[in-house]
Design goal:
Layout (H helix, E strand, L loop, with lengths): L1 E6 L2 H15 L5 E6 L10 H7 L6 E2 L7 H19 L3 E5 L3 H12 L4 E4 L11 H12 L2 E4 L2 H9 L7 E3 L3 H16 L2 H4 L7 E5 L3 H4 L2 H14 L4 E5 L2 H9 L10 E4 L4 H9 L3 E4 L2 H9 L4 E3 L7 H6 L2 E3 L5 H11 L15 H13 L1
Parallel strand pairs: 1-2, 1-4, 2-3, 4-5, 5-6, 6-7, 8-9, 8-11, 9-10, 11-12, 12-13
Helix pairs in contact: 1-7, 1-16, 3-4, 4-5, 7-12, 10-15
Bound molecules: uridine-5'-diphosphate.
Protein name: UDP-GlcNAc3NAcA epimerase
InterPro entries: UDP_GlcNAc_Epimerase_2_dom (IPR003331), WecB-like (IPR029767)
GO molecular function: isomerase activity
């Protein structure tokens, strides 16, 4: 059987690290990776392939940048060409990026079945490009691999149910189990940055709703500045966010205690997450990783797709609208713990995904 996996953005490389490893153990499955090129900086792409042992993509389309429509459209054209040439039995896509949508759309129009990993997530905010990508991908996929019961319910509300939808657990939990210990043994990031465990807040910010809105971004920067008077803030900054801060000369809003660093490798990120006193983020994956490593999290958004974490008390929302409110939310979260319950499966999501794809093929 031939499966083409389409990926293009950082979180997809991490998900693929778990699933591609499981594929490589199957004698009868040939997995071919197609990288759209959505993320292209070495520290946003190559580093993950090298560190996590993900096979080299057979195709790299080099299509990153441009508007939403340009990027999605160009990817669609080029993915279709590759699918026509390779004629796979399945196309596998992850998550909610433009690469997810263009991959699923190209496949379904050629009558190639699509497996969507991380199906059923909803923010119920259709101004997010990710929400559009998820909704459409779910509605055109053949197999929908949901990470949680909530995701299964979201699909049911939209009329997608039955044996095509499966809660397999979260592949990012698989990755956390696979690489968590390795990070502790291999990463020297704490030493390199001269950080003591429990003495810093780890931050990441990259969602368009925060980077494209200078008022929201300013609230975030000022809040980080304020909290950094108590604990330093370590911020591996996404290239998109750095660009906006540089272009608008917003550095002055950050205090001395905020350390902007380049994006780090996955193992270094895991190490930084495990040892932080608090994680402040608008990332989907990082919210869950905070939970996997029992670190309190504040999500700098109006809503989250990972509602379970709010209910369990590991995460709280702090919409970046008011500096004082966000700073208070950050301060209050340090030292808190949530309930001891894991809604993200048993760490065998990758295995279940592959088993189901095989079952549906014969
Ligand atoms: N990540 C990383 N290095 C960094 C920042 C994040 O390896 O400098 C990892 C992080 O551990 C998580 C994933 O990237 O596994 C999350 O990706 P991102 O925040 O870009 O996307 P999202 O999850 O919001 O879709």
């Amino acid at each position: 059987m031939k499966v083409i996996t389409i990926l293009g953005a950082r979180p997809q490389f991490i998900k693929a690290a778990a699933v591609s490893k499981a594929f490589s153990q199957e004698d009868n499955i040939d997995e071919i990776l197609l990288h759209t090129g959505q993320h292209f900086d070495a520290n946003m792409s190559d580093i993950f392939f090298a560190e996590l042992g993900i096979p080299k993509p057979a195709y790299n389309l080099g299509i990153g940048g441009g508007s939403q429509g340009v990027m999605t459209g160009q990817q669609l054209i080029e993915i279709e060409k590759t699918l026509l040439m390779e004629k796979p039995d399945w196309v596998l896509v992850y998550g909610d990026t433009n690469s997810t949508l263009s991959g699923a759309l190209a496949a379904v129009k050629l009558h190639i079945p699509v497996a969507h990993v991380e199906a059923g997530l909803r923010s119920f905010n259709r101004s997010m490009p990710e929400e559009i990508n998820r909704v459409i991908t779910d509605h055109i996929s053949t197999l929908l691999f949901a990470p949680t019961d909530t995701a299964i319910q979201n699909l049911a509300y939209e009329g997608i149910s039955g044996e095509t939808c499966l809660n397999v657990g979260d592949v990012m939990y698989d990755a956390a189990l696979l690489y968590g210990e390795q990070a502790k043994n291999q990463s020297s990031v704490l030493k390199k940055l001269e950080l003591k465990a429990g003495s810093y807040v780890l931050a990441t910010v990259h969602r368009a709703e925060n980077t494209d809105d200078l008022s929201r971004l300013s609230v975030i920067l000022k809040s980080f500045g304020a909290i950094s008077q108590h604990q330093q803030v370590v911020w591996p900054i996404h290239p998109r966010t750095r660009k906006v801060i540089d272009k608008n000369n917003l550095h002055f809003l950050l205090g001395e205690g905020v350390r902007l660093i380049d994006p780090v490798s996955y193992l270094d990120m895991v190490m930084l997450e495990c040892s932080a006193s608090l994680i402040a983020t608008d990332s989907g994956g990082v919210q869950k990783e905070a939970f996997f490593y029992s670190v309190p999290c504040v999500t700098l958004r109006d809503e989250t797709e990972w509602e379970e974490l709010i209910k369990l008390g590991w995460n709280r929302l702090a919409p970046p609208l008011d500096v004082e409110e966000v700073t208070t939310a950050l301060m209050m979260a340090i030292g808190t713990q949530g309930k001891d319950f894991n809604p993200y499966g048993d760490g065998k999501a990758a295995e279940k995904i592959i088993r189901e794809i095989v079952r549906k093929t014969v």
